[in-house]
Design a protein that fits this description.
The chain is of the alpha+beta class. The chain has helices at 4-23, 46-61, 89-100, 103-113, 156-177, 205-216, 219-229, and strands at residues 33-41, 65-74, 79-86, 117-127, 143-151, 181-188, 195-202, 232-243. Helix 2 runs antiparallel to helix 4 and helix 5 (156-177) runs antiparallel to helix 7 (219-229). The protein is globular.
Length: 250
């Protein structure tokens, strides 16, 4: 007779397989380029930055696809975090050139906004082949969590399989309980080339804390997480993010 633990693992493996298939649907386009941009806003200028961005961001969205635009709530202060999608780097270059010649964008937003910033940072990312980018969150008007893990510089060909198993095991456990939702997963390219990124959606911060504790106590989650740890550095960060009104991800 099979033990309860074995039966539980078999059930989880079946559920994980279903989740993996759903996250590796045809919507995954491996040639696309994703740009993660972070703006650190001067504290005294933050209200003005938010107001101007709400009013004028439609000018930027007209040029290329916005995945999401958020304001940091926890894990960073006075930050705007946004993710943009391009067909490839050539497409990105064309978009940047078009923006540079868009006088409406330059005069009404960019020239004003840049004076409000302490610094800007960007990285490009590649979508993980086993995880599509979700367009519907678990809970609209909830919160998002962007997790960044800096891996040892051995490459995803070494840690990719164990990372896939770990993340999708967590996603399956959340999905089974209708908890958080994995919205996307990427590996770093230019910028933080050894980074791995996960974007999650939760109903609230309190739900996230309680659900995270429960999910991380599961044997299968602990097992798959331990397999990833040997490839990680000590650099792991997490930001709680609130979507701006114009963000496609709400």
């Amino acid at each position: 007779m099979l033990s309860r633990y074995v039966l539980q693992n078999m059930a989880m493996a079946n559920h994980l397989s279903q989740v993996s298939r759903s996250f590796s649907a045809s919507t995954v386009a491996l040639d696309k380029c994703y740009e993660l941009r972070t703006y650190a806003v001067l504290p005294g200028a933050f209200p003005e930055f938010v107001s101007l961005t709400k009013e004028m961001m439609h000018l930027r969205i007209a040029h290329s696809k916005l995945i999401g635009y958020w304001l940091a709530d926890l894990g960073a202060l006075n930050q705007a975090v946004h993710i943009w999608e391009y067909d490839n780097f050539t497409h990105r270059k064309k978009v940047r050139a078009n923006l540079a010649s868009d006088q409406n964008w330059l005069d009404n937003y960019l020239s004003k906004m840049t004076k409000m910033l302490a610094y800007q940072d960007n990285s490009t990312m590649k979508q993980m082949p086993w995880c599509s980018i979700e367009s519907q969150p678990r809970k609209e008007a909830g919160i998002y969590e962007l997790k960044e893990m800096i891996m040892k510089p051995v490459g995803p060909h070494v840690w990719g399989d164990v990372m896939q198993r770990s993340v999708l095991t967590q996603a399956a456990a959340h999905d089974k309980r209708n908890y958080g939702k994995l919205m996307g997963a990427w590996m770093g390219d230019f910028g933080k080339s050894s980074a791995f990124y996960q974007l999650w959606n939760f109903e609230s911060l309190d739900h996230r804390i309680a659900q995270k504790a429960e999910i991380e106590s599961l044997p299968e989650v602990r097992e798959t997480g331990a397999a990833v740890e040997k490839f990680m550095t000590e650099h792991v960060t997490s930001k709680a993010l609130l979507p701006m009104p114009f963000s496609p991800l709400q």
